[in-house]
Every structure is written in C-alpha cells, then in structure tokens.
Amino acid sequence: MRIKIVSLDEIAEQYLPFSTLERLWDFSPGVMPPTISLSSLSLDVQAHDTVAFVRIPSIHPTNTYVFKSAVHEVRLTYHELRVLISISPHEHILPKPLFIVTMTDKHGVSDLVCGFIVQFFSGGNLAGILSSRGAVDKLVLKDQLRWAQQITRTVIFINESPAEFYPELKADNILLSTSKGTEDVLIIDFEQTGTWMEFSPPEVNFLRTLERLAESPEFIPEERRKHYLDFAQTIGVDGSIEETIYTNPPRGYFKTWLMLSAMEMEAAEVYSLGMTLWCIFEGIPSNRNPMRRSWHIDHLQEFPEFRRSPARIRKLILECVRGWEAWSLEILVRRGAMMYPPGKTGRGGEPLGTALETQEAGIAIWRRWLDDMEPYLWARKRWQDGCASEADLEMLGFPKRPKLQGVLDELDDILREHLEAF
Q: Which residue, of 122, 325, 362, 383, has the greatest Cβ tally within 10 A?
C-alpha cells in the first residue's frame, strides 16, 4: 500500500522546504541526512497518529523503518528532527534519522519536509514489557536496576548536549534494544513538549494549567480569565498565543518548561524519573490508569502503592517525587470504556456511580485542582524571591528533590549491594 498524505490546509501551510530548514539550521556539510520522497515509502502499519512502520523498496525491499510525521503541529516535528541531528551518537538515544522525507503539495510546491525516517527496533517499548512481564512476575531485579541506571545516565548526558533537557520521560518513551545481547534502553521522542500529566511534577502541571487559562478566552468567562491573566502576569507566566509556523527556536516550544530555572528543570526531570522508576520496579506500565489512554491490562495498582520495590528503591522514588501530594492525583476512574467517580467504580465492594455522579465528580475535581493551583504558585513565587517558609518548601517539593547524579550514585550502590548478595 502506497502512502498518500491528505492534509488539512492548515497543516499543508506549515510545511517548509528542505532548503529553508537547511538554511535555518546551518549544519556543517554532510551533517543533514539525505532526502527521500514520500512516494517511495510503502506503509505496513500505522502504529500511532504520528508514527508509521514503513518499507522503502528502492533501498531494501524487506526492512522495516519508522516514519515520524505530524498531524497537527509540524513545528514540533521539525524541532525534534533538529535535536536528533544535533545530539552526538549515544548508545541509549535513538540514532540520528536515516532520511528526511519530502513531498510535493497540491499547488506543485516540491521538496517540502513532511517527516523523517529512523531505524526500527523490534524489542518493543518499556511500558509494554513492564505490562506483560509484570503481570506474570517475570521481571528480574538486575535488569530493572540496569534500565534505571541507563535512563538516569542518559538524561544526564542529554542535559549536557545541545538538547539541554528532556521533559518527555515516561516508560512509553523508552524502547528496549537487544543489539548487544542484553535488553538495553533507548530513549526516544525529542519534541520537548512534556510528558503525560501523571508523570509531570506539580510545578509544571500548575504552571501549564495557568498558562492555558490565561490564553483561552473562548472557554472562560471574561471576569475569571482576567483574574487568571493578572495572576499569570504577576508570577511571570506567559499567556500569549504562539505562531504555528516553525521559526527555529533554539530550545523548542514548551513554554511552561522554559519558564523554569535550570535547577527547576533538573528537579522536574528527577520527578518524572521517579515516576518512571516506580513503573520499572513495580512492573506497571503507567503510574495511573488514565482517562484518555487504555492498556491491554488495566492494573488495579497505582502510585503511591508499593508492592514489589526493594526498601531502598522505595525511599529513592519517594525522594525523587517530593511534592506529589500537592498535585491532586484523584481523578475519574476508567474501567474499560466507562468513567466512574473515585470510590464508586463497582469493584472491590464499591457502589457503581451514575452518569450524573461522574459528571459532578469531574467538576469537583477540576474545581479542587484550580483551588490548589494558586497557593502552590504563590509559594513558588516566594521561593523565587528568596522568602519561602519551611511549609512552602514542603508543599513545593522540588527544592528538596535529589540531583540526577545523586540518583545515579544511589542506583549504583544498590546494584553493588544486590550483586554482592548473590
């Protein structure tokens, strides 16, 4: 089956010619991957809205490749492409793209960049491995510790690379490669637009919420929007609406993340790492059964419940996710395709909630979310101004999280202890 892009006009208008990207990025000769025409790709599987498994018959008739494209914001695809080209090769980072994919639009404009091709890895992603092996208790502690070390070490490397930071961390963004005879991690997804809310720290979630409230006039009554806009301006949150055309910003488009100081960025990475470690050592693909995603198996266990993690790992995880209590993790509960209020799921002796009760619970959760947001962000403002109280620091959490190197040192020591025991 041949690939054909049927673009909305707003998407087509975002495509830029290869020559424009070449000029914007100004890489040394030979650094940019070669181009290949979209028409030369043959679709095998549409794995995700932006990811397809394809073949390239003119290059290798049987090999599978991964085609990464965009269905909404082309600028994010271009930013990821630039980041992947910029980063030096690393054994635990997705290798540099093999090809840049170009197409001709309906007006006859050619050489428009619509995506890129990367190597296919057959080992699957870490979330899937945790789900399948965790369900039958087949995870090995030595492997889990190795994965945890590799992830932590790689995030440290990314922070020191042209990418500067990695806000996407979750088990779903980690592949397992078997090229060296062992299952080793491979970090993917460098759009730098953030991870799922459940893996994101409260400081990022609250800032992102305020940012959206300040920039969404069509959904919020004017009086409330003015309140949030004034509050955003007071604490330095940018509520402006961005252009959609790619402009080559050096640090990408995640405005919320770019509001953080370097210390806050590392603390936010440590939080996401802590939640990922919980998944690895508990054998669960995600720390929540979220409303908008489903797994092959919906696990009843969710963070902060521990069942399998060794004592030192539990302590380390809780240190990494300091402040998690400030972010209300109580959300509507999904069972299959249905949503229920917390405590009324119809399982474990709980009553079954009605549709009206579910709606009312969703509204109450959202209101509590907004009520918690302002005190938290005021505490962050006091911390920025150097006058935070001990109560502020406890609520914020991030000033007391360990550094990435500290996490790695602890993991190294735990592994040594484990090997000595055997």
A: 383
pTM equals: 0.92
Q: Is the pLDDT of residue 294 over 90?
A: no
CA dihedral 313, 314, 318, 321 (to 10 degrees): 60
Cβ proximity of 51 and 71 under 8 Å: no
DSSP E strands in 197-341: the ranges are: 333-335, 338-340
Residue 109 has pLDDT above 60, yes or no: yes
Match 């790695």 to its residue by tokens.
408
DSSP H or E run through 66: strand 60-68
CB under 8 Å to 184, separation ≥6 — which residues? 91, 92, 146, 147, 150, 176, 177, 178
Residue 153 has pLDDT above 90, yes or no: yes
Q: Is the dihedral of CA 372, 378, 379, 383 positive or negative?
A: positive
Q: pLDDT per residue over 237-272, tens digit each? A: 876 667 788 999 999 999 999 999 999 999 999 999
* Rounded CA separation 345/297 (Å): 17
Q: Which tokens go with 255?
A: 């405005």
CA distance 283 to 296: 14
Instruction: Report the length, in residues, of the chain.
Output: 422
Element (H, E) at 145: helix 141-159
DSSP 230-272: HHHHHTT---PPPPSS----TT-S-HHHHTS-HHHHHHHHHHH
Closest CA to 10 of 357, 181, 244, 345: 244
Place of tokens 């789900």: 131
Tokens of 410: 């602890």
Tokens at residue 347, please?
């399982």
Contacts of 281 (CB under 8 A, 6+ apart): 144, 148, 308, 309, 310, 313, 317
| pLDDT, tens digit (0-9, with 9 covering 90-100), for 200-226 | 999 999 999 998 888 776 778 888 888
Distance CA 266, CA 166 (A): 9
392 Cβ contact list (under 8 Å, min separation 6): 379, 382, 383
